[in-house]
Design a protein that fits this description.
595 residues; 29 helices
């Protein structure tokens, strides 16, 4: 055969095979996405990286390895700012690898934020870490339980725990953001209106009354739909004619529909949250205030569990389809845990832990007080409305977790029930206190022994203070009393009574073995007067309105007696404001942020 003919045939076959292979690209791409194998780079690469990616093609993995090795080196050297830029490239080069997003978010929220002393600077980096996971990491890896867990953890740990000394500032800023988006605490009624709101501007304008209001505002140079939050948050910046129009009672109904649409849009698009799922969680766990960080941690952990369940079902279907061995993890290092574990058990347990840890935090210190503008005034202390919900989670974990995870649940559940016996007693809910005692006795009899309810309660209160020093107990009693007066100032009488009982019980039960040691006794009445002096003299951050209300409730005679002592102390030299600030820093039990 002639050479030219051979070449023509070869070229023709090459074209045919190339065309045939191109037909397989779409099915292969579909399969890669179906089995979570897709790893295309993101848009927004620097020109150098984009060029390198296009030139190397299949060798892009080499670039990712080099970038990752360099990231680890920078991390060991503590050069976090350089690491942030490099990790950003890694995220764009390998957007379907959850670890790169996880590492980058951790660096932002933890390593970099801690390089700053000013709270607003720290918050900017913490918020960037949260947004990176929520807005980019999870959308590119919607089936990765690790990223849901990391997001839930960052919200719970950074804003809900006290490991970062700037956590009160983070919590306040988060509360303001959520208040702006939700128009309040995010009650069931508010969320229901968002669920029922139109999903597009075109659909919203189908309502004649809404369309008429929008046109009327546009004639005055203002788009109420797109600029609703300017009107809601800063009405003084809106032109007077527009304000006068929107303040009319006749436009209240269409304005409410526009509000529901705008808030729903902001919640879904900016915060990536579904109001219907938020309602479902409130129905399951209790009346969340969505300005608090704990419900958000629960939200993302629950969403992670939902995605994990679908991932496991899809994985099992793939295993069955290709006749593969069912994956599992075996643990032979410790004979106590010599059993098989499902591939996804670890992720499921970690997500569950974040949910019951958040619920437990709500019970312990989840009662937050916000003003009408969404400003967090203080933490009022425990919120026992979530106690039964948290208890059900402990039960669920106890019954569903494998051997190697149960020990921690048993310990945590025991302490939870034990604290419940004491706390409900202080609240005056004796029935609930007895119920928790009976449950504790049935579940963990060794924790109760042969004690009756009264004996256990007395022993538990004494045990609570037995390991504390005189100064520690005195500070705690003082802090409880101050918190009680503040609660009275804000009208929380039930909480004030709980705090009073708790302070008295701790004072009476401290150091029973040293009754003859006068210094070892805690004199409740004297501490109570000293605490009231601090409150009425302005050394505790109580607002003017709350202080006036507290004085009314105490009565003029009591206030006069206390102020006489304050004035007498002033003649002897009342401490300066600077000294008071330093004293409050050393005694966090009486700081407003910890009430």
């Amino acid at each position: 055969m002639h050479t030219k003919v051979k070449r023509a045939i070869s070229l023709s076959l090459a074209v045919v095979f190339l065309a045939a292979s191109s037909l397989a690209i779409d099915p292969l791409t579909t399969m890669r996405r179906r089995y979570d194998l897709s790893n295309e780079p993101l848009e927004g690469l620097s020109p150098e990286l984009a060029l390198a990616t296009q030139m190397l093609g299949w060798a892009r993995g080499i670039i990712i390895d080099v970038v990752w090795i360099r990231m680890e080196a920078l991390k060991e050297q503590g050069r976090y700012f350089e690491l942030v830029q490099l990790a950003d490239w890694a995220c764009k080069l390998a957007p379907r690898i959850p670890d790169v997003w996880d590492v980058q978010a951790w660096n932002l929220a933890y390593n970099v934020s801690c390089q700053f002393d000013q709270f607003p600077d720290r918050w900017a980096w913490v918020r960037s870490g949260i947004e990176l996971l929520r807005d980019q990491g999870i959308p590119n890896n919607p089936n990765s339980p690790k990223l849901y867990r990391s997001l839930a953890w960052t919200i719970w740990h950074k804003m809900g725990m006290q490991d970062d000394y700037a956590y009160p500032f983070y919590r306040k800023r988060w509360g303001l953001l959520m208040h702006e988006a939700l128009g309040g605490s995010g009650t069931r009624e508010q969320l229901q209106r968002m669920v029922q709101a139109p999903t597009s501007r075109q659909q919203l304008l189908l309502d004649p009354a809404v369309r008429q209001l929008v046109l009327a505002c546009q004639e005055k140079g203002f788009d109420i739909v797109d600029e609703f939050f300017l009107w809601a948050d800063e009405p003084d910046k809106v032109a007077a004619p527009v304000r006068q129009l929107l303040e009319k009672e006749t436009v209240a109904e269409p304005l409410a529909k526009i509000e529901a649409y705008a808030r729903s849009k902001k919640l879904r698009e900016q915060y990536k949250m579904d109001p219907q799922l938020m309602i479902n969680l409130m129905d399951e766990y209790g009346p969340f205030d969505w300005r608090s960080p704990y419900p958000h941690s629960i939200y993302w952990a629950e969403l992670g569990l939902e995605k994990l369940q679908k991932l496991e079902e899809r994985m099992n279907a793939t295993i069955e389809k290709f006749d593969l061995e069912t994956p599992h993890v075996r643990h032979f290092q410790d004979i106590r845990y010599r059993d098989t574990e499902n591939l996804y058990d670890y992720d499921r347990v970690q997500l569950d832990r974040l949910i019951y840890a958040s619920m437990n935090a709500l019970v312990q210190h989840g009662r937050l007080l916000f003003d009408r503008k969404g400003e967090l005034l203080m933490t009022m202390g425990p919120d026992y409305r979530f106690a039964d919900g948290a208890r059900k989670l402990y039960e669920k974990a106890l019954n569903s977790w494998g051997k190697r995870y149960k020990e921690g649940v048993v310990s945590a559940y025991t302490y939870f029930l034990s604290d419940g016996v004491v706390e409900f007693h202080f609240m005056g809910d004796n029935k609930k206190s007895h119920d928790y005692f009976e449950l504790l006795k049935a579940k963990f009899p060794l924790a109760v022994g042969d004690r009756s309810y009264d004996q256990y309660l007395e022993w538990r209160i004494k045990d609570y203070t037995s390991s504390m020093t005189y100064d520690q107990v005195r500070r705690i009693v003082n802090g409880l009393i101050v918190r009680g007066y503040i609660c009275l100032g804000y009208g929380y009488d039930d909480k004030a009574e709980v705090l009073r009982k708790e302070a008295q019980a701790i004072a009476q039960n401290f150091d029973p073995e040293e009754k003859d040691n006068l210094r070892g006794l805690i004199r409740y009445d004297k501490i109570k007067d000293a605490a009231l002096i601090d409150v009425l003299s302005g050394q505790v951050g109580l607002s003017a309105d709350a202080l006036d209300y507290l004085k009314q409730r105490l009565g003029p005679k009591k206030v006069e007696d206390i102020m006489r002592k304050v004035n007498a102390a002033g003649k002897k030299g009342l401490p300066s404001a600077e000294k008071v600030d330093k004293a409050l820093q050393k005694n966090p039990d009486v700081r407003p942020d910890n009430y």
